[in-house]
Amino acid sequence: MNLGELLAELNRRGLEVRVEGDALRLRGPKGAATPELRQSLAEHKPELLELLRAHDRGQEEAPIVPVQRTGPAPLSYGQTRLWFLDRLEPGSTAYNLMLALQVEGHLDVAIVKRCFTEVIRRHEVLRTRYAEHAGVPVQIVDPEPRFDFRVLDEREVLASEPAGVEAFLQREGKRPFDLATGPVMRVLIIERGPQGQYLQLCLHHIAADVWAQAILVREIVTLYGAFASGQPSPLPPLTLQYSDFAVWQREYLQGEVRQKLVDYWRKKLEGAPPLLELPTDHPRPKVQSNRGGEVRFEVGPQLTAALKALSHTARTTPFVGMLSAFFVLLHRLTGREDLVLGANSINRTRTELEPLVGFFVDNLVMRVDLGGNPGFAAVLERVRETVLDAFAHQDLPFDLLVEELRPARSLGFNPLFQVVFAWVRASGEAQDETGLRMRPIEFEAESSRFDLNLFVDDHGDRLSARMVFNRDLFEQGTIQHYVDCFQVLLEGLVAEPQRPVGELPVLPADVRERVLRQWNDTGTPEAEGACLHALIEAQALRTPDAVAVVVDDWELTYGELDQLSDRVAASLQDLDVGPEVAVGVYLDRSAEFIVSLLAVMKAGGAFLALDADEPVDRLRHIVADARPRVVISSTKLSERLWGMGGFVTLHVDEGVRGVPAAPGQQLRRDVLPDQLAYILYTSGSTGRPKGTEITHRSIVNYLRWSVDAYRLREGTGSPVIGSVSFDGTLTSLFAPLLAGRALFLVPRGHEIDQLTSRDYPEQGFSFIKMTPSHLRAFNGLGRTREVLGRTHAVVLGGEGLHGVDLAPWREQGLPTRVINEYGPTEAAVACCFETLLPDGTPPPERVPIGRPIPHMRLYILDRYLQPVPVGVPGELYIGGVGLARGYLRRPDLTAERFVPNPFDGGLEGSRLYRTGDHARYLSDGRIEYLGRQDDQLKIRGHRVEAGEVEAALGRHPDVVQAAVLLQRLPSGAPRLVAYVQPQSMENGDLRAELRKSLREVLPEYMMPEVIAVLPELPLTPSGKIDRKALPPGVSEAPVASALARTEARTETERQLQALFGELLGLSSVAPTDSFFELGGHSLLAVTLISRISAKLGIEVPLNEVFDRPSVEALAHWIDEHSSKVTALIRQLPACVVALKPLGHKPPLFLTPPSAGSPAVYVALARHLDAEQPVFGFQMPGVMDDQLPPETIEDTAALYVAALRQVQPRGPYRIAGWSYGGLVVSEMARQLEALGEQVALLGLIDGAALDRLAGHDGTPQEIPAGSQLIKVLGEAQMPRDYASLRLIGEWMGISLPESWADLLRRDTDGQYSYLWRFLRDSALTARNFLATRRSEQLYTFSSYGGSATLFRTGPVTIGGDPLVDSVRRFALAGTEVIPVPGNHMTLIMDERNVAVLAIEIQKCLDRVLPLPPIAEMSRAEMPATGLAAQLPMEVM
């Protein structure tokens, strides 16, 4: 291997090589350095020495040095991602790291605890908490070790967990961590008596990675040996801590260093597919969970040795070899050539990072092109180059890469890659110096952060692997099948490295036998070969008086049908019609039409059915191409044939008048089953119709099957409602005639009216055959019951069938059987079917097309004609007796579409038809139709199935049917356009309703840009949606204008534009611009929702920013969700702010602290019950130059008056924090004087009068403002600018992102930040002075009611002056509830606020409830009482 590959292999094995003088020193896991690897090191020693010395010189230029601890440190880029994900999904355990060990022997528990205490003291990251300051996370290091250490007896464990100790350990490992409060490490010991112990270490990934786990185990073992023998710690002091790395990383990745890395990755990933669309069992959810599972497998010694040998021959490593094989598997599963996955990197390239515990591991993006169907040897070379390049540019963290590249974001999948490969050196048993043995316990994965992960452990002579998968997408059996395929593929890759990878077998032998043979075992005793007309003649002989054809009130019997068709056939034979001669039949849907079709076949010819409504140009082309010898028509219709020439016209007018009788004339019977029965023209891809030639044997095979499958003899026959030139109509035309049943000819253009009419007398049909578009039309008319109630079965074909199409059938409990039939014209109408019984079982979203009919075979193949794995999409191929002969006079096209069958053992003449349809096998052998290959649309790199979007549109109750097309704008940009046929054109809000419903089920890239509402969608003569006839270039006024507009349409859009621009540093933002495409990222999204909350007074869930990243979409959501309160906003008194106006519970009113703004309570309001309304008071002068009240009594009186406008009568629920506690206490006293009842007086770490009660009983007054200043000093805040901004927000002072921004001009050239800062500072200083004076002037008297004090810190009765002060004030009693944090962090720290909200809500729910104000009638409510519902913006 070359030097680059050697370094990559060292990295994969966790080995570090360093220079000591002229020697190389190797360090890493025991056994990781094989003799072969040491030999390679020796061979490359000179190069390594030069490279490592240069590397050391580079490190000297950018060394990692200890950072002075003057404040909280930032998080590393990797930690920031984990912190964000924890915010996105609180309580998730997806990033819990668990290491469980079975101990043989006995550990001294006290010594173990001492060891872990020492390790935590040694590594700061293990005693670090992660707080948020102004939307930015920071590291807070606790001064002393703190961790969860528990010792349990095995008997206790088994009593609580019957499934056993290992199940208990796994459950314990899934307990979430609280990153804000810590600790981030837990240790559990389970005593087993003489059998030993279990030891489990659980950490959050933000503090450690797998390498760090090994460091911890090594240090614990070392410390235990030392402490057990009475020795001090032998571990050398650490020169660095993880936070030093985090600071260095952010400083190092700046300027030119960062730009070079970004430029490389930007070029490397340009145009990469955003999503690797693996074949899944379930649709991708909008928000993917981390529920996971795994399948384990072994690569045996022989195959492992072969893979490693091949890798070394290719001058690369086994890591690259296995990664290459995995790329080939993904290629075979997806059919894609451009593949992207992630590979783990230990990312400890610097020697000084080796001993550190921390989160260093990162994911490298690997992009490989497998185009050209290369051999595995070539794949190895491509992957080798990719790996070397990736490791050479690994210093750019994945999270920074995402921030720079701004890929499309979705909560449903990971950006850049969704599949991960990891190669690790397997760990074995550990043994310490005391003889204790510790064996790792392996648990089955229960979480997966990616769609699919392949973890490979190298044991030297063999490989063990785990394929971990996301259960939102996959079933366990599917992944087991993929694993089985991978092992087959791996054997082929190693055995034939030069053979193209697309041609190698991928299916295990038993699976291959199943899909090729067993699932195609449709052989039944084949009936004697017969021609179609002969079977009908036989039926006429058996039942000559039975009704064969019904037209309105007119009937034709089988005997009459037989006689009339003989007359026409005789005339045709007189015109030299015989076998293989085409005869056109150009008639309306009539008895004469049926007679003529039968007559052509009796004469030996092949009928060419021509639709009476066929456009003249198309008719002319068909006639010219088919060259019929005779055309049977009526006198009137034949006029349209003038000028087409080359044939004789035979007129058969009403009752076949004009056709001479042929008494005694014997028809020639020389046609054979393998000769043509008919020619049917279908649309060609070039726009030129092509004629498909079908033999008697082919069509008879289908019709004989359909008689039994449809249970034709149970009903009266079938109505004919389709075009005569549509092969699906042949079922209705001929199947009843083989069973002695009738054809009911429905007048053309009146099919829907007649079948839905209650006056139509026919009932008890054997079946009705129609397209799903027909069914949707009946559904839309609300007449499904009338139609399906007439028949024993409905046969659907011609289009994909979705579960939503069958909803009325199921909901109305109709007894009709549903048969979903599939087959192209080239397979004689149909080749497979699925029957759905009326048993109430909900149909699947995609209704399968089932299994092949007798004597037909189906294959799902990839582009190299290899059978694909079960569940994997491929092209559907059809074989069997039902195949067409080919295309009339089109040998080139016939050869292209009808190919030799490679699976028929070389049987001469056996062919397969390439359908061009996408399908896949389900696990039970049924087939699921996925649509036409040419219907697959591509939007921004994503594949979009039109049928999936159409089905989502069809779920709306006002939609009859829908079609989705890809159109291109003049610029060439693609867009999705949806055409919708509504129940009624009167629903003007339909587009908005559809967009809302689509957002619930579809990702953003599948959303149609335009929704065109049409009175009806055009249908082809066969009843399918005619996509070519849909109007091109449609626009939807609101959307079309939005694509170009730059001005906001609503006030919400205007405010969001300003917020986007402010956060992203942009002078202008268009309403359609995406937050992320403009440069936003995860952390800025957190800040954005905080700003929206402050500016707009509405809490936007984080996921809404991802789902609706544009100004327009987010504004629409905000307006939609704030509409309930908008009308009430203007009715509140000026000093009342609605923090959360709606809800059925009695409202809570909050008084502000000395800064005067209730904005500090926004988070508290959000964490209270969803039905809990919350209002805040705002002190005059906060937002303007108005002077605040001079005394606390005046402030309280102002608030009481406003309170009684909002809620005219008590009991009241009031609370206040800090200085607000003084004001709310005075409010309670004033309300009591007015005769009102206070149900809850809540004092949030504030009191009626803050007194420092001396032990001599002489009270010393300490005003609330002084207490705040004291706490601010003790709280070590602000430590940095971010902390200062947080305090500024509480005080009402607006600070920009950085000090430098204070002097930045806005787009108008003004110093808006500076002027805002100076204004806010002046107002805040004035308000603080005013409240301080009011405290000094306040005269206190007691209150007769009770109070609840929410107290921070340890609560001590008799020694806490605040508690004592409240007890003296509230004469009816005081309840003290401890809450976390200090005076400031109780309100400013989100985690503490959440706990406080829980305690306050308990108190609110405990007091006597009143009927909600919202339930009062307007007659009962005073004129100002509506203000009780009102919100006002929190500024």
Description:
With 1435 residues, the protein is α/β, with parallel strands linked by helices. The chain has 7 domains: 3-61, Arc Repressor Mutant, subunit A, CATH 1.10.10; 73-244, Chloramphenicol Acetyltransferase; 253-276 and 292-426 and 444-506, 2-Layer Sandwich (Chloramphenicol Acetyltransferase); 530-695, ANL, N-terminal domain (Rossmann fold); 943-1044, ANL, C-terminal domain (GMP Synthetase, Chain A, domain 3, 2-Layer Sandwich), CATH 3.30.300.30; 1046-1124, Orthogonal Bundle (Non-ribosomal Peptide Synthetase Peptidyl Carrier Protein, Chain A); 1130-1260 and 1340-1435, Rossmann fold (3-Layer(aba) Sandwich). The protein is 36% helix and 20% strand. The protein is built from 43 helices and 52 strands. The strands form 12 sheets. A 7-stranded mixed beta sheet has the order 23-22-20-21-24-25-35, with helices on both faces. A 7-stranded mixed beta sheet has the order 44-46-45-47-48-51-52, with helices on both faces. Strand 14 and strand 15 (437-441) form a beta hairpin. It is globular. It starts with a helix and ends in a 29-residue tail after the last helix. Its cofactor is pantetheine 4'-phosphate.
